[in-house]
């Protein structure tokens, strides 16, 4: 009799997940994916009213969810919130910022704002969740929503690209450092995803034509395209995956 291998589980029953930037867009989609897989989800974002509405929607679907008002740019408050509410088995950080424009026109305020959330905030949020896991002697999966622009350049995106390249760098370093604790650290790198924040791009026919030419599958991304990748990395299905980037870019970076 052949001894067949056992398929790993994508389920997250009994796990507690913190999702930052969870009130809309990609972050909301990630939170739904984790909850659908059985996790209890702590939904974090800056807007209290929006969070309350999202929590109600989750609970109406039968999901265990709670709100946490959090600004990842406030490092001290973030550290305290994670310590008070953790440890978290899973982190998905979808909080981010972008201020696009020609590199020659970059002003320091825009640079600092993007770096403050995309790099500084992401770094210390990830650190805080890892610290709680290590103190509790627990493994975990820490995921940052990065970007295809963390692997290629883009017109008018010098600051944004710089921030996402930095995320890819600290992800690899943290994965090496925390691997002995059973903590996996990865990124998901989307192409252009249709959300309320990106709709202005999709309202421009010339820009959509350019995007679909760059994306080898010939279509822009939807929030649902990100959800499977996050569930995979969060679950036992991705148990040997760390220090890497899952490209969800339709082939943009293939050439």
Write the layout of secondary structure elements.
Layout: E1 16-20, H1 25-36, E2 40-45, H2 48-60, E3 65-69, H3 75-85, E4 90-93, H4 108-136, E5 140-145, H5 158-178, E6 183-190, H6 199-202, H7 205-214, H8 224-234, E7 245-248
Parallel strand pairs: 1-2, 1-4, 2-3, 4-5, 5-6, 6-7
Helix pairs in contact: 1-8, 3-4, 4-5
Structure description:
By secondary structure, the chain is an alpha/beta fold. It has one domain (16-254): NAD(P)-binding Rossmann-like Domain (Rossmann fold), CATH 3.40.50.720. The protein has a 7-stranded parallel beta sheet with strand order 3-2-1-4-5-6-7, with helices on both faces. The protein is globular, with a radius of gyration of 18 Å. Helices cover 44% and strands 15% of the residues. Helix 4 links the parallel strand 4 (90-93) and strand 5.
* Total beta strands: 7
Mind describing the biggest β-sheet? 7 strands, parallel
End-to-end CA span: 46 Å
Strand content: 5-15%
- Side-by-side strand order of the widest sheet: 3-2-1-4-5-6-7
CATH fold group = Rossmann fold
The CATH architecture category equals: 3-Layer(aba) Sandwich
Which runs of at least 5 residues are low in confidence (pLDDT < 50)? none
Overall structural domain count: 1
- Structural class, judged by helices and strands? alpha/beta
**Quick one: CATH class?**
Alpha Beta
- The radius of gyration over CA amounts to 18 Å
DSSP summary: helix tally: 8
CATH superfamily: NAD(P)-binding Rossmann-like Domain
**In which range does the helix fraction lie?**
40-55%
Average pLDDT across residues? 95
């Amino acid at each position: 009799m052949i001894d067949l291998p056992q398929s790993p589980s994508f389920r997250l029953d009994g796990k507690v997940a913190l999702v930052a930037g969870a009130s809309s867009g990609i972050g909301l989609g990630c939170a739904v994916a984790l909850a659908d897989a059985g996790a209890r989800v702590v939904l974090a974002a800056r807007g209290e009213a929006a969070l309350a509405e999202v929590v109600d929607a989750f609970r109406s679907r039968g999901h265990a969810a709670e709100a946490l008002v959090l600004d990842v740019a406030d490092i001290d408050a973030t550290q305290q919130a994670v310590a008070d509410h953790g440890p978290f088995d899973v982190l998905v950080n979808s909080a981010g910022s972008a201020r696009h424009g020609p590199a020659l026109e970059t002003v320091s305020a825009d640079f600092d704002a993007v770096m403050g959330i995309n790099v500084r905030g992401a770094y210390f949020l990830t650190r805080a969740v890892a610290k709680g896991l290590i103190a509790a002697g627990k493994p975990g999966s820490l995921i940052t929503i990065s970007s295809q622009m963390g692997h290629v350049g883009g017109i008018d995106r010098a600051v944004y690209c710089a921030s996402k390249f930095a995320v890819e760098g600290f992800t690899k370093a943290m994965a090496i450092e925390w691997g002995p604790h059973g903590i996996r650290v990865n990124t998901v790198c989307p192409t252009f995803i249709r959300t309320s924040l990106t709709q202005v791009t999709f309202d421009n026919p010339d820009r959509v034509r350019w995007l679909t030419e760059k994306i080898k599958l010939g279509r822009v991304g939807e929030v649902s395209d990100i959800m499977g990748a996050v569930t995979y990395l969060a679950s036992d299905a991705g148990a040997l995956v760390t220090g890497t980037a899952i490209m969800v870019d339709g082939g943009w970076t293939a050439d």
